[in-house]
């Protein structure tokens, strides 16, 4: 019986961590996920770098 309670507690801790992580927000000024400049952040949180429109041929 004690293993059921510890499993429930573990699931609760994991769910709480996921909720906190998903509600943490971001520090980027680029909230739409558009890569206009190399220092912007993409929607997945990575830096845009060479994917940015300002460094690609034909970009704005």
List keywords for this structure.
single chain; 60 residues; 1 helix; mainly alpha
Structure write-up:
The chain contains 1 helix and no strands. The protein is mainly α and 60 residues long. The longest helix has 21 residues, at 2-22. The chain is rod-shaped and about 60 Å long. The N and C termini lie far apart (63 Å).
Mean pLDDT: 76
How far the N terminus sits from the C terminus, by CA atoms, comes to 63 Å
Largest sheet: none
| Morphology call | rod-shaped
- Quickly count the helices: 1
Strand content: under 5%
Total strands:
0
Kindly name the structural category: mainly alpha
Which stretches are poorly predicted, pLDDT < 50 over at least 5 residues?
none
Helix content: 25-40%
Helices and strands, in order, run as: H
What is the rounded Rg? Answer: 19 Å
Task: Write a brief structural summary.
With 60 residues, the chain is mostly helical. It contains 1 helix and no strands.
């Amino acid at each position: 019986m004690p293993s059921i309670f510890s499993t429930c507690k573990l699931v609760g801790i994991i769910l709480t961590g996921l909720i906190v992580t998903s509600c943490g927000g971001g520090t980027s000024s680029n909230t739409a996920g558009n890569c206009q400049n190399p220092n912007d952040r993409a929607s997945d949180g990575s830096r845009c770098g060479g994917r940015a429109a300002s460094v690609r041929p034909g970009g704005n």
